Structures are given as C-alpha cells and as structure tokens.
Automatic annotation (TrEMBL):
<comment type="similarity">
    <text>Belongs to the Iojap/RsfS family.</text>
</comment>
<feature type="region of interest" description="Disordered">
    <location>
        <begin position="113"/>
        <end position="226"/>
    </location>
</feature>
<comment type="subunit">
    <text>Interacts with ribosomal protein uL14 (rplN).</text>
</comment>
<dbReference type="GO" id="GO:0017148">
    <property type="term" value="P:negative regulation of translation"/>
</dbReference>
<dbReference type="Pfam" id="PF02410">
    <property type="entry name" value="RsfS"/>
</dbReference>
<protein>
    <recommendedName>
        <fullName>Ribosomal silencing factor RsfS</fullName>
    </recommendedName>
</protein>
<feature type="compositionally biased region" description="Low complexity">
    <location>
        <begin position="198"/>
        <end position="212"/>
    </location>
</feature>
<dbReference type="GO" id="GO:0005737">
    <property type="term" value="C:cytoplasm"/>
</dbReference>
<dbReference type="GO" id="GO:0043023">
    <property type="term" value="F:ribosomal large subunit binding"/>
</dbReference>
<keyword id="KW-0678">Repressor</keyword>
<dbReference type="GO" id="GO:0042256">
    <property type="term" value="P:cytosolic ribosome assembly"/>
</dbReference>
<dbReference type="InterPro" id="IPR043519">
    <property type="entry name" value="NT_sf"/>
</dbReference>
<keyword id="KW-0963">Cytoplasm</keyword>
<keyword id="KW-0810">Translation regulation</keyword>
<comment type="function">
    <text>Functions as a ribosomal silencing factor. Interacts with ribosomal protein uL14 (rplN), blocking formation of intersubunit bridge B8. Prevents association of the 30S and 50S ribosomal subunits and the formation of functional ribosomes, thus repressing translation.</text>
</comment>
<dbReference type="GO" id="GO:0090071">
    <property type="term" value="P:negative regulation of ribosome biogenesis"/>
</dbReference>
<dbReference type="InterPro" id="IPR004394">
    <property type="entry name" value="Iojap/RsfS/C7orf30"/>
</dbReference>
Length: 226
C-alpha cells in the first residue's frame, strides 16, 4: 500500500475515536525500518484500546497488513506495527515521560490542514478596502427666539411675587429705626422681689396643733384661778 494512503487511513481511524494531539513524522532520513511514525494520546485505557482497534480495522478493510500489536493488555501504551508505519497510542503521562517526538520528530507531516476546509475569518469575509460607514451624531437644531417668546417670558417674570429686601440691624440703627423685638413668653411663676415675704397657707396639721395648745393654756389658767 502507498505510504500516503496508509498515513491517511491511520489519521482518519484515530480521528474517528477522538484521538488527541495526533502527530505523524517522516522517518525516511532517520531509519530504514519504517517510513512513518505516528504518536497519539488517549485519555484512558479504554480509549487507547479503542484507538488501536480502529486503526487495525481501518487498515484491514482497505487491504493493508497488520504486522503486530503490543500493549493491549494494560492499555497504557499500545503499539500497532503496520510495516511501513508504526503507531504509538499512549496515555498523556506515558507520552510526556518517553517523549517520542524528540526521537522521531525530525520532519512532521501535516494532515489536518489539507483535509479540513478553511474557514473564512472576519477579516477576509469582505473586501479589505471597504470602509464601515461612520455613525454621525445628530445635533439638535438651535431654537430661534421670537419676540412673542420674549414677551411671554417677561410676563411670567412680572407675575412672580417679589420678596422684600432684608434690612440688617446696623442699617436699621443708622436709619434711626429700632428693630422690633419679639414678645417674651409669660412665665408660669411670678418673680419675687428681693427682701419680700411670701405667705404660705397653713397646713391642717399645723392648725390642729395650734388649737390643742390654746386649749391647754385655757385649762391651766382655770386651775390657777381656782
């Protein structure tokens, strides 16, 4: 089988099972054992086994030969030998540890760019020299003041009540006018002049005591007279 057809079949088989970070390297100048090396990542043991099975079935359906498969028992690193091409299906930790790209990564073969249709970007969607219309901010037209409007404004100002000007105390004294004082509020209790006496009403107890004292004095006088 032609090497270009073989590498295309392998790439399609790995993409069908969602293989991650697919890389194919041309090793014709490094070794004479094989022409291509493919390295791909699988997130779990189940996915690595499924990727290996997909490559095997795809190549067999198109008349290719499967030389051998290794590592299917553990699923951490599955190797599929296709004769002219070797496929390494590895989990991310194993791939980061062994770094096969540094050994066989002399010349990488780009597969995805030729298979996928280019997407038109926003810059290339339209002509480059086409300018977008600039937004113009509309300004309000100036209002023309007519004589009728001036007359209405004058009438409104005349109808407003005018406030009396405030006269300060200093200006009132200079003019000979005394500012009116506010009347003081009447107090509840009248003021007592100094030196005066205040009459206080006698209580019931004091009245009864005075009566008893007067009665005793009268009794004493009677006895003395007898």
């Amino acid at each position: 089988m032609d090497i270009k057809k073989l590498q295309t079949l392998v790439f399609d088989a790995l993409e069908d099972v969602k293989g991650q970070d697919i890389q194919i390297f041309d090793t014709t100048e490094i070794t004479s054992l094989f022409d291509r090396v493919c390295v791909v990542s699988g997130t779990s043991n189940r996915q690595t086994k499924a990727l290996a099975a997909s490559v095997r079935d795809k190549v067999k359906e198109n008349g290719g030969d499967i030389v051998g498969m290794e590592g299917e028992a553990t699923g951490e690193w599955v190797l599929v030998d296709l004769g002219d091409m070797v496929v390494h299906i590895m989990q991310p930790a194993i791939r980061a540890y062994y770094r096969l790209e540094e050994i066989w990564g002399g010349k990488e073969v780009k597969m995805g760019a030729a298979k996928r249709a280019p997407r038109a970007s926003k810059m290339t969607a339209g002509p480059l020299d086409e300018e977008k219309p600039k937004r113009s901010r509309s300004k309000a037209a100036p209002v023309e003041v007519t004589p009728d409007m001036m007359a209405i404004q004058t009438t409104v100002e005349d109808e407003k009540p005018k406030r009396k000007p405030r006269v300060s105390k200093v200006a009132a004294e200079l003019a000979g006018e005394k500012p009116a004082r506010k009347p003081r509020a009447a107090t509840a209790t009248p003021k007592i002049p100094s030196g005066g006496r205040v009459k206080v009403a006698a209580t019931k107890t004091a009245t009864a005591s005075s009566k008893e004292a007067a009665a005793k004095k009268a009794t004493t006088r009677r006895k003395t007279a007898e």
